[in-house]
Amino acid sequence: MAVYLGFDCGGSSVRAMTINDDLDVLHAGHAGPGNILTISEKRLHAHLSQAAEGCPEPEKVCGCFAGLLSERDKDEAVSLIKSLYPKAVCRAEPDFFAALKACPEGTDVCIVAGTGSVVCSEVNGRLAKTGGRGYIIGDVGASQQYGRDAMVHFLDVGEKKISESLRTRILERFGSLNPDEVISRLYRSQAPMAMLVKLTPAVAKDFRHNEPYAVESLRRNTGGLAEITLKHCQRFHPGKKEIRVTLAGGLWKLSDLFVEQITIELKRRFDPIRIEVARISRPPVFGAALLAKEA
Asked: What is the mean pLDDT of residues 44-68?
C-alpha cells in the first residue's frame, strides 16, 4: 500500500505525518521551526529530516511551509524536499493550505493563528487568502503578536510590576529578568518569533486578572483578526446568510479565552449573518498528508 508524507512547517515547529490509502496514520514526528523565509536551508533540511525520522519510505510528499509566497519559494521548497526523497513525487504549498485541507466538510472559512495568522478558504476550486503578510507588516492576532505585547509590557513597567506568570515565562525563555539581557537574547536567537510565542499563555492569564495591557492586547488582536475575516467573506463569500468558521493553529490550543474572544468579535461584526465557530479536530499536518496523496 502506498505511503504519503506531509510536512506542516510553521514558525515554531515542523510536524511530519505519513498516511496510507486508508488514511491510517503510520508515523508522526516534529522538530524545530520551519518558516522557509526565516530559517536557513541547512537548518530547515535538518528539521525536516528530524521530523520524518523513522517514517516509511513515501511515494508522494507535500511540504506546507510558512513564508512560502512566490513561485521561486515553491521551487526552492520542492528542491529541498527532493533532496530528502529523490524518488518521490513532491509538491510544496503554503502552510495554511494544510490547515484548510484538514478542516471538516462544510467549512466556509479557516482562521489560522499560530506563530503567524491568515484567513483562507477554497472558492471555486481555488485557494483564497486574506491577511498573513508576515510579522513585520501583518499576522494580526497571531501568537507572536501577543508575545510581543507581553514583552513590551515587561520592558515598560519592569520586573517588579509584572505578574508572576509573565515573570516565570520570561525567566524560563531568556534566563534573565534584566531588560537589556532579554532584548539581546531575543535578537540573537535563531527563532525570535518562536521565543515570543512562549509568552502568549501569560497574556491569557493576565487577561483573566484584568491586567490592562492584556485586556487591550486581546481586544485589539481578536478585533483585528475578526475584521480581516469580515473583509475576506465580503470579497469571497458575498451574500451568504450563514458562515461556518473553523479555527486552526496553535493559538486556539493555548487557552479557551482566545476562542471565546474571537467568537465574540466575529458575531459582533457579522451580525445579522449567522456565524458558527469551531476548533479544528484534525491537525493541519494531516491535511498536508492528504495534499501529498493528491499530488
From this structure: 95
If asked whether residues 154 and 264 sit together in one domain, one would say yes
Which domain covers residue 288, as residue numbers?
3-100+284-294
Identify whether residues 152 and 59 lie together within a single domain: no
Who contacts 205 (Cβ-Cβ below 8 Å, separation ≥6)?
163, 165
HSE of 185, CA atoms in CB hemisphere, 13 A = 17
- Name 115's Cβ contacts closer than 8 Å, sequence gap at least 6: 10, 11, 12, 35, 66, 139, 142, 143, 144, 193, 194, 197, 250
pLDDT at 69 > cutoff 90: no
Residues composing the chain: 295
Tell me, yes or no, whether 220 and 134 share the same domain.
Answer: yes
Are 174 and 67 members of one domain?
A: no
Q: What is the pLDDT of residues 28-50, one digit of tens each?
A: 999 999 999 888 999 999 999 99
Clarify whether residues 167 and 261 are in a common domain.
yes
Q: Which residues neighbour 63 within 8 Å (Cβ) at sequence distance 6 or greater?
A: 6, 7, 9, 48, 77, 78, 80, 81, 90, 91, 92, 93, 288
Residue with grid cell 511540504, as numbered in its chain: 63
Q: Give the span between the Cα atoms of 166 and 155, in whole angstroms.
A: 12
